[in-house]
Design a protein that fits this description.
Strand 1, helix 1 and strand 2 form a beta-alpha-beta unit. The protein has a five-stranded parallel β-sheet with strand order 2-1-3-4-5, sandwiched between helices. Helix 2 packs parallel to helix 3 and helix 7 packs across helix 9. The protein contains ten helices and five strands; from the N terminus they run βαβαβαβαβαααααα.
Length: 215
């Protein structure tokens, strides 16, 4: 029986790792420490699919995925299209790999093998740093200005949710800040996306910036 209160939203973590045993061990660590595993993907294409369907809060991403496109390619996609934090996992820490990985701006980097404590600490720091970085130099959203540009205006609560998304907060943080349940939060996010005519967090932030005339 799951005794978790509905207001205690768990951070949803997508694992992208082509070695099943490692992926399962990571999932075990996360489940033992009150994270929710949003899914496990084993290659670039599977990662894209699960990003779109599961909408995780953060991604643990192996650099050395099998296939034509590797984890750094997927990290580039996440950075440019999805705009959520991701942590690179790698058995290699050579200069070329680090330089290539740095260019796509991961929120963290873990060298295999790593301990459970290192994984959890890196996750916490990455989530916090991402929120701080995203919140820098952002103009405060204006309720009336945003709604003037929308055919279907946001409700006051939907606007509050979008403000927190715009500030770089995770779903867990938003649910806690607004004292609302997970299901209520999801409903507000989906309704807001519908009004903004977007499907992803990064698209919502871009649309909000456009409505505020931020260049």
């Amino acid at each position: 029986m799951n005794t978790m209160n509905e207001f205690n939203y768990k951070v949803r973590v997508l694992i992208v790792e082509d070695e099943p045993l490692i992926a399962e061990n990571i999932a075990m660590y996360l489940n033992n420490h009150d994270y929710e595993v949003a899914g496990i993907a084993y290659d670039y294409e599977d990662g894209i699919l699960k990003l779109e369907n599961e909408k995780p809060d953060i991604v643990l991403l192996d650099i050395n995925l099998d296939g034509k496109l590797d984890g750094i390619d997927l990290g580039k996609y996440i950075h440019e299209k999805i705009m959520i934090p991701f942590v690179f996992l790698s058995s290699y820490s050579d200069k070329n790999t680090l330089e290539r990985a740095t260019k796509v701006q991961p929120s963290g980097y873990l060298v295999k093998p790593f301990h459970e404590k290192s994984l959890l600490t890196t996750l916490e720091i990455s989530l916090a740093n991402f929120a701080i970085h995203t919140n820098q130099n952002l103009e405060e959203l204006n309720f009336q200005k945003i709604n003037t540009g929308l055919a279907s205006p946001l409700s006051q609560r939907e606007f509050e949710v979008m403000q927190l998304i715009y500030a770089g907060k995770t779903n867990q943080q938003i649910a806690q800040d607004l004292f609302i349940s997970v299901n209520t939060l999801k409903r507000h996010i989906n309704n807001s996306y519908m009004r903004l005519e977007v499907n992803f967090r990064t698209s919502a932030i871009k649309k909000l910036r456009e409505l505020m005339c931020i260049k």
